[in-house]
Amino acid sequence: MLNRTPAAERIHIAIFGRRNVGKSSIINAITDSDLSIVSAQAGTTTDPVYKTMELLPLGPVVLIDTPGYDDEGALGEKRVSRTRQVLNRTDLALLLIDAAEGLQEQDRDFWNLLLEKEIPSLIVANKSDLAPSGAAAQENTIAPILYVSAKTGDGIFALKEALGALVTEEDKPPYLQDLFAPSETVVLVCPIDESAPKGRMILPQQMAIRDVLDGDGQVLVVQPAQLAGALSSLNSPPALVVTDSQAFAQVSSICPESIPLTSFSILMARYKGFLSSAIEGAAKIDTLGDGARILMSEGCTHHRQCGDIGTVKLPRLLEKYTKKQLIIETSSGRDFPEDVSSYDLVIHCGGCMLTERDLRYRMKLSADQGVAFTNYGTAIAHMNGILRRSLAPLGGHFSR
Q: Is residue 126 part of a domain?
């Protein structure tokens, strides 16, 4: 069985450039395979294409092939818009230019956008075999340029090494490994109901199991109805109980106050670096009035079941808690609106399928437009009056 790293945990490398500078050819050269369709016809790539793979020396990555940012016409403008949206989930960027044509004004504008977004980036001049001197590309340069040829392979190894040098080790908090000691037990409460995916567990639950095992702990996985019996069967109390958000109230009533309790969603918010904002955003729920507009947003797309948390359970809890008539709208996948100013509150899922950059972009976009931002688990804990308890195991350290 392949050791598959989730896409959200992979480094996302996007290749940007004008049409026909060889973005798809560069991806094929980097991967030493024919992953992307290559054609002399400008505009072959019409939508961002995501390719998951292992790339040394970086390890697990997602390569993103984008349409040219110089596309024209009504359809071209939509393609350019899709290309710009990729920036929000890009960890490393390659700005590809034609070695013979050199830097164009559009290249300079896009480079400034990369700088504005604070994305580690390289300028790469492709087709060096057609302009060996590189004179055109070097004129009025705005940054060092790396020369490569997707056709001959020249410079491709150096390009991979340069990409590796862009990666810096960040002080990223663990998911939950710092919340227990070796040999201690962690209990995971994982409801299996009509909204649970058939035949598998959701990613936050998988991550928790692996984190406990990596920390030499013991993991006990139960459904809510089994929790009381599981706790009484243990010789000593568990170091931590982690529950799915939708079972928060039930689990809190079963789990003694002496046992630390939190949720997968709250742990994910800490892991992704936006828990402090989620706590502040949850407080907005108390001020909502009749007609308040709420965006319920999910980072993935899935078939919604009759008991779906985002469209059924959470809206029902919100109206019961606020006793107000609320207007609730939804978004899913990559279709997060760029204008959220008409909303009073954004309630996001845990974001396990999104990169940290993408999720923090959504949080910052909301903040810049004066809209409170929280997530499912934090909002549910707040409305059940157990937010303070669910944060206690984290020791107050919520973001980097």
A: yes
